[in-house]
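Table S2 (text version). Query chain:
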Amino acid sequence: MTDSTMTDSTMTGSAASAPPGPDPNPSPFALSTKAVRVFAGIGLLFLLFACGIFIIVVLHQSYSGGASRALIEQGQWAMSLSFFAGLIGLCLPEVCLSHRARVVAVWSEYGLALAGPILAAGDFS
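Corresponding structure-token output:
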């Protein structure tokens, strides 16, 4: 039994308030969620490589007497935030995170991982 006061516009209005699903017309050049997750996993491996470079730069500066710890701490923070951005991009299910947010998290992961050694290398004061 249906209510005669409900019109088609109210029925579509309630359907429009449902959570959005996948884009019906995705771009043919957009990466799939699986590919973005693979890039997030590769980014975590890149973060290990960036940590190694960070340690080499900091040890070289400390033996040469030039490390002041101001930008080194910022580099450590950048790399730790990179780790969490990578975990967000890799581990959160598709229901919790939109595709665009996952792509932004992976881009942030790579940027922050690269910022750590660059900040440590620029700390000569």
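Notes on Table S2: Residues 33-64 form the longest helix (32 residues). The mean pLDDT is 82.
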